[in-house]
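Components:
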Amino acid sequence: MNQVSFERVNNDILLIRFAGRWQLSGGLAPSGAVERELQAFPSLARVAFDARDLGDWDSSILTVLARVSGLCRQRQVALDADGLPAGIHRLLDLAEAVPERVGARIAVRKSPVLERIGTGAIGVADSVTAMLALLGDMTVTFVRLFGMKARYRASDLWLLIQQCGAQALPIVTLVTFLVGVILAFVGAVQLKQFGAQIYVADLVGIAMTREMGAMMTAIIMAGRTGAAFAAQLGTMKVTQEIDALATAGFSPMEFLVLPRVIALVLMMPLLCLYADLMGVAGGAAIGVGMLHLSWTTYLHQTADAITLTDVAGGVFKSAVYGVLVALAGCLRGLQSGNSSAAVGEAATSAVVTGIVAIILACGVFSVVFYVLGI
Amino acid sequence: MNGVAPVGNSAQAHITVRDLTMAYGSFVIMREMTFTINQGDVFIIMGGSGSGKSTLLRHLIGLNQPAGGQIFYGDQDFTRAEAVQREQILRDTGVLFQSGALWSPMTLAENIGLLLEEYTDLSPAEIGEVAALKLALVGLKGFEDYYPSQISGGMQKRAGLARAMALDPEILFFDEPSSGLDPISARLLDELILELRDNLGTTVVVVTHDLSSIFTIGTNSIFLDPDRKTIGAQGSPKELLAHSQDPQLRRFLTRGGTEHL
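Structure:
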């Protein structure tokens, strides 16, 4: 067990005696003891050590000695380290070889709740500004695209189209089929009470084509592709690949963001149509399986219920959601910091930003479509 | 302080930095740095870890904006140039980033080819040939179709150099070229740097704290002093070692006085 004792010599020297095994697992000497001893010795001029009975030691004794040395410096008391084993001596020297850089210590303080709320709110404003700036930048880039001046690799685009098109089909199938089933099920329970089961087809068909197809696809893509974009661009930032692009004269906006936006804008409407179909299939499964309608009746009823405008409206929305998801992912990726934690945060906030943007846009669309009477 | 390049040995001056101050927000890293990089120099930017060497490099290639002062390429004011003009200036530079920074979705040949595709009129077959040649120059013959993740860190670094040399730039920037390389590869890289300088007349700017590189290849250098937050000394590394009395620099060049080179 670690032991420390103090002895005053000649009225101006404090002899600190270390004995026993000093191991981190055994804890440090109580922190107040040294301070108290130094404080209670006003005529102190020198601190010396006696370590003859010291057994095994590790950083625990170094920590205590560093504390003593700091206190000595504060009180301008000489420190005589001769009584310490040579190893301890050298390690202490090493710890003090590089003086603390002036101003290097950062003041850590707890900010009050109100301040944090305020900072958060300012942060939101900043991120809206950043999103708008990116949107502006993107528009300029698109103008260049139509002037055939934008530079990106066609092979990148094809790869992205594959990634956010064909490879998304399984998850889109699963989710939207089940959404169709759920809608039909909720509707069936209610409509059955009036003997109006057949209108389940209308309910599912209209809900899927007008809203749910586009929205569910968008949310899936925000979680799947938006996060992937953010992680990819964030990592490229960490590995300096984006710097390398910039110094080679390629704008990251054209080279990285543009193909991602194009890929999603092209694929989202197709995925949305597919999602509509899957939703209707899910509804039909309930209609046929639970409500004992025939396939033909169900599909006829659906075809009568939905109009081309419903479908086109949904598809149009999905293209807009595609832009939002791609921009949210790329924005968060490009804003990412230079560490693995920052890339993780970028991916998380890409999904959050993407979903918030989708829901907001959905609200705006509802009002606009209502006003236009679509 | 207008857009006129400073006088002096401007006939050979490749990059002239005047009163450059670097800061992150209000935190000043280095202030009022003035130095000249001449044509054909192997110019070393040296200093301890965290002294702002890499940040200075980022300023020189336009990735960071100076908080004050100017950078001239030849007699063109790089700091105030329009985007198009800056791009033009950067066309004559190549950068080897610390980690290589190869574009990960592309093969090595595509990494090099991308630049040739963009800035030359070569046919795809010719681009392939040039890319293979550049890879051969850095000892990576036959690795054209590898992706960056499939090769070792040292090879990535060399491939990064091949990409930096793709357009035969007049100035090559190296950010810590020997970090992460074994001593033999590091020496080969040093020799390659000298070959480039001697045979192509390339001006080379190297950020490093590797003493053996500094003394082997450096013809001119600046030492960033983190305490004074500015340039501590400038001159040829060998002369600095022989004559400088600056204690910080002496400690740096002699590994704290333990080694006499």
